[in-house]
Amino acid sequence: MRWYAFLLYPFALLYGFATSLRNWFFDKGWLASTLSPIPCIVVGNLSVGGTGKTPMVEFLIRHLNKEKQVATLSRGYGRKTKGFIKASSKSSPEMIGDEPYQIYQKFGERINVYVGEDRVGSLGKIAVGPDSPEVVILDDAFQHRYVVGDLNILLTTYQKPFFLDFILPMGRLRESRTGAKRADVIIVSKCPEELVDSERNKIKDNVFAYSNSAAFVLFSSISYGEPFPMMKSAVFSEQIILLTGLANDQPLIDYVDNRFNLLQVVSYPDHYDYGGSDFEHIRTIFRQHGRQNPVVLTTEKDAVKVKSHAPKGFLEEIPIFVLPIEVVFSDADKLTLVQLIHQKVFNKANSK
Length: 352
Description:
about 350 residues; alpha/beta; Rossmann fold; 2 domains; nine-stranded mixed beta sheet; globular
């Protein structure tokens, strides 16, 4: 916790009261929750960013798309547009948001990607559309209680689990820790690859202090793939300038530092919109390390914005590589998640 966090305690109390009152209204039925017209999975968190929602959504897409027609729906955080939009080849990060755009770039030919602030209205439009899916993944919708999901997945990181965090602005929680009671599955993300049973059980005990006792607690880690070039002509070098725009880039920094020769880290805030001065700054740093034949390595999320915003000639001048990531579960935890999806989501789809 930041050293001055105690000064923010009164504001955290006010924020916590407001969010608790809102949840109480939903629990009492004074604010209406609507059943989704399409079987849906809600993916979200209690904290502000950095829990790995997008890789988790991509994991679900890969699994679900083997059996069902899948769509994703999010509000499109950071987009410059309003209203309900279906992603297309004409879409951009500014139009639909960087994370939906990333998902469309990966899966757009196989699934439909939608954005819309009004999730209830958007689901209604999707349901009556000509290509209505069989399952919808609602991205970052755990606090959006106007829609009732069939399976509610809550993510929290191993590095900073929700049970050790505090309400905004004292900490990073959007609502009280007891919000975890609404989750069917709580996934502890970004875990070390080797996590001993005693530590798993300790984490589970801490989670169950706030969650529903019937919830499942699963553990996932991040697997990094091989860097691939943004421009096909680029040649890879292990001399890395790391470019990030993440809520928490420390795990990525640690990985790159352990595997490659990390020359410098250029960090920007989460969902950052790169502009002309940023590209000039990157160019300057690249030239400073020029004798070491460096490359710029960035995330998939940042890559879509870099490619979209880069000035003419920049991508040919600076070799930029993208580091893909995937969510990985143990065989047992993956089986549990798959079974829950079949029980709570596919059964509803089959009964339509």
